[in-house]
Amino acid sequence: MSSLKARLYTELATKNAAMVEGIAVDPTIFAGLDLGGKHQEQVHTLFEMDHETHVSLPLPCGFLTPGGLRVQFRWDNRSAFRITHDDGIYHLREKNQVLFPIEFDSRPDYYGLKTSDGVEMSTVASHGQDGSISIAYSNECALKDKGEDCLFCNANATKDTYGEAEHINWKNPRQIGETVAAAYREFETLPRRHVNLTGGFVPERREVDYYLDVAEAIQEHTGLEDFNGTAVIGIPRDLKVIDKYKEAGFRTIAMNIEVWNRNIFQVVCPGKVTHCGDYDHWLEALEYAVAVFGRGRVRTGIVAGLEPKPSTLEGVEVLASKGIITLTGAWCPNPGSALEGHRTPTPEWHLDMAKKSAAIHRRAGFTFDQLYDSSPFSHFLVQDIYRIEDELLPVFGQDDATQDAAE
Ligand code: SF4
User: Fold this and answer.
1) Domains of the chain: residue spans and CATH
2) Nearest CA to ligand 1 atom 4
3) What is the pLDDT of residues 320-352, one digit of tens each?
4) Do the Cβ atoms of 290 and 282 come closer than 8 Å?
5) The pLDDT of residue 405 is above 50
C-alpha cells in the first residue's frame, strides 16, 4: 500500500472514531467561523445526530480531513476528541494531542436562496457534499401516533425540538422542484449530482402519489428526465406499486430493513411490520425492486450495532448476492430516540464492520457510482474505502511535491 493510502486509512480510522464518540467543543470557538455565511450550518430537517440537543445554538455540519475525507460533526462533550481554534486554525485533537488541521464545510449558494413562495431552500434540501442533497418532504413519522416508532429513530423528537425554531415544515412538490434545480445548477461542473427523497411515514401510506408529483416537479424545474433521484420508501403491500417509482423517473430506490435478524427486526421496527408487512415481505420487496430498477440500483440500510456483527454481515452478503446495496452506518443512540442513553459498539467494531462491508460490495462488483447514486449522503465509510482504493480523492491528483507536503 502506498504511504498516501496508508495515511488516508489512518484518517479514516480517526473519522470513524470521531463520529462514533462525537466531538467535544466549547461552542464559543465557532465565533471565528462564518456559520450561515461562508460555512454550512446544521439544519435539522429530519434527524438530530449530535449527542446533545442545541436549540438556537448554531453548529457546523462537518469538516474535511487533510486527505479530503468528510467527517460529520456530532457534538458530545464527553468525548476524548476535541476541536480547538489555535491562532486562526481549527484542529482536531484527541485528548491534548493535535491530530490534524481541519476545513469546515463550505455553505452552498443555494442555502441563501428562497423558493418562489418564500421558503428558505436550506430547510428544503440538506447539502451532503459532493453534489449530493437530501430532502425530507415530511419531518415527522405517522408511527408516533400509534407508539410504533423504530426504537433507534428520533425523527419525531427532532421535529418537536427544532421544527418551530428552525421553521422546518412539510415541503410541497414545487418547493422541492425549485430547490433541486437551484442546487443542480450550482453543482453543474461537479462529476456527480444526486437527490435523495425521504421522510417519515405518511398517514394512510399516501406517499406514492406525493413522490410522483415531486418527480414531475423536479423534471419540470431541472429539465432533466433522469435527475438521478433515489426514492426512499416504506415497502408497499402491493409490490407492483414499486414499478410506479421507476416509471416516474427515479433512478434508484431505497427501502430500509434496519436489522437483518428477523426476531430483532420485529422488536426494533414494530411499525414497519404493522404498516408494511413482515420480514419475508421486506425481503421479497427488495428482490422485486431489483427486477424493476436493476442490480446496484436498490439500496437498503442496516443500523450497525443493533445486532451481532455476524448477523449484519450475513445480511450484507445475502443482499449483495441479489444485487442490493446495504449501507451499514454506525448506530448513533441519538437524543429523543427510545434507545437514547444506550451505547453503540466501539469505534474498532464499526471500522471492522465498514471494511468487511466494503469488501463484500467490491466482491459483488458494485461500483462507486452505484454507491453514490443510491446513498442519502456521501460520507459513509464504505464510500470512503472506495475513494481510497479507486484513488478518487483530489489528493491523488496532486503532484508529488504537494502530496509530500500533505503527508
Ligand atoms: S419508519 Fe421508523 S426510521 Fe422511518 S421515520 Fe418512522 S420511526 Fe423513523
Assistant:
1) 113-389 (3.20.20.70)
2) 200
3) 999 999 999 999 999 999 999 999 999 999 999
4) no
5) no
Of 322, 298, 317, 330, nearest in space to 358 by CA: 317
How big is the chain by its Cα radius of gyration, in Å?
A: 20
Task: Give dist(CA 272, CA 279) in Å, integer.
Answer: 9
- Residue-wise pLDDT tens digits, 113-142: 999 999 999 999 999 989 999 999 888 898
**229 within 8 A of 197, measured Cβ to Cβ:** yes
- Cβ pair 245, 231 in contact under 8 A: yes
Does the CB atom of residue 149 touch ligand 1 within 6 A? Answer: yes
pLDDT tens per residue, range 42-64: 999 888 899 989 998 999 999 99
Atom of ligand 1 nearest to the CA of 149: 7
Mean pLDDT of the chain: 94
- C-alpha 188/C-alpha 179 separation (Å) is 14
Distance 141 CA to ligand 1 centre (A): 6
46 lines ligand 1 (CB under 6 A): no
Dihedral over Cα of 162, 166, 41, 186: its sign = positive
Q: Do the beta carbons of residue 176 and residue 135 sit within 8 Å?
A: yes
**Contact indicator for 123, 168 with CB cutoff of 8 Å:** yes
